[in-house]
User: Fold these one by one.
Assistant:
Number 1:
Amino acid sequence: MIYKDEETFDKINFTETHFEIGEYDRCTFVNCDFSHTDLSDCKFDECTFIRCNLSVVKLKLTALREVNFKDCKLLGLRFDDCNEFGLSVSFDTCVLNLSSFYKTRMIKTIFKNCQLKETDFTECDLTSAVFDNCDLSSATFDHSNIEKADFRTSYSYSIDLENNKIKKAKFSYSGILGLLDKYDIEIDRAK
């Protein structure tokens, strides 16, 4: 197992070059292609991924501690497979469609300008999470804790108020429709 500290990895295609399993502290990955790479048992502490493709990577027991993803493609990731100890991530302008956070503790996580289409948040703890300008089309919130979470600038979500913990969650007036979907009612916008 290798150890890397404060290194920058730029334009590396890990689908062609072997990615070494190890511990990466304060490293930066820029324009790298990790798609379908096995990152199981790796540790990433205070790392940043910029414009990387991490679609369908394996995250079995992967430690992600204070990791930032910016302009990354993260299709179909199983964050529920990660090492849950110290799990702390943030996402800025990322595509996380079809990813899973099933039963994952994501307290205070920031999702900014992200696509989260068909993402699974079932039984996820999203207390005080921020969804800033995110597309949540067909995302699943079932028995999730979204207390104090901020959805005010996000859209296309459908959240069952009876199946989730929602105390003090924040929604915009226009987003209220996504809280009433299950009732199949018609709401007239005219005054």
Number 2:
Amino acid sequence: MIWTPETRAARVDALLSQAPVLPVLAIEHVEDAVPLARALVDAGLPVLEVTLRTPAALDAMAAIVREVPGACVGAGTVLRPGDFRAVEATGAVFAIAPGTTPALYTAAEVTALAFLPAIATASELMTGLEHGYRRFKFFPAEAAGGVIALKAFAGPFADVRFCPTGGIDAARAPAYFALRNVMTVGGSWMVPADALAARDWSRIGALAREAAALR
């Protein structure tokens, strides 16, 4: 894949525009992956970020790709260049980092995955622009200034759009949706830890439907 600023932005837009909320998932048990993904997809949240925080993450992504039609699967918590290759092998289509290093930017040039780098400051954003990116994860959103920070970015960086993630819940999300430079919001509030532990897919589905209706 030969990436340009235009193709990078278009690929991310095509993926993240499918739903207003990007569920951020930490899956501990592979057997939970498919029913969890089905509950979210059926509720109107088809784009799923499976974080590389657990030993089950890669197998969970592969299972969702195989068994859940309509799911658009990607990896979160991409920290090392080698993560791109491991994620590609699962059949996932995008990768998201919690921050971005020169090594990650270099590795992203040769991956087929749509890559969403993360920034928290104007300087980090300008570094991303120099590497040809116009779409970013804003993380940790609430701790890094939240809605006020994104409003400030809109002036000097008018062609940049964000997926804010970190500390956002159903009550905070609408304020982000009101911003023109926000394309989607990442969060895990629709998958409470107790509901996931209990495998209460109906409760997760209900929360996901509410999240999908926020925008």
Number 3:
Amino acid sequence: MKWIPNKKLKMKVRLNKFLSECGIASRRKSEDFINEGRVTVNGKIVSELSVFVDEEKDIVTLDGEKIKAQKKVYFLLNKPRGFVTTTDDEKGRKKVTDLIKSNQKIYPIGRLDYDTTGVLLLTNDGNFTNFLTHPKNKIPRVYKAILNRKLIEDDRNKLIKGVFLDGRRSRFDKIEYLKKNVYEKVIVTATEGRNHFVKRMFEILGYNVTSLERISYGVFNVNEIPLGHYKKLSYAEIENVYKTYSK
């Protein structure tokens, strides 16, 4: 996705996704509405699922009722321990969305484990989520990890060159020691975002991660945000992400 220098971040989205993000129905149910001829765009009945709409310009209706585009919001949270990175939890545990006051339905971008702290972004913007998480954009995530034992240099080199995880070669972009001669505390940079990626990579070589904090995600950090607190991001800050990482 290329960066579009526009303060309102106007982008076209697939019609079923637009309906879903406006809270009308799931994407699959929205497809049913389209197939049934109940949806119009600029006064014309739409029968194809491949149609894209500009949510700032196009007029979309369902059964004759105009659908209002949902305002896009973006939050940067300093996630504490003891919260799950989901919008719903069958075990009744505390959720990261409980920490943020928003009139919009938001969801986290990617996941942090229950006991992992640090940078977590939340939004209702599917395009921004896809941009941040798509492997081709190679957006770096930086973590501070404490291991159960000293990381030897040979293993450090293996993790940078690549080891096999889930049947494919995976690697850290960089591993630095947090302090001189303190080899169990490391700073890890990765551009992959698979679940439990950092912990699982170390486990392959027999290390356990006893503490993990994401200290940055792309251009974002939480240096000035207390643990458990958040800030609302501006459109200019979101634009800067597209500008910085667009190919």
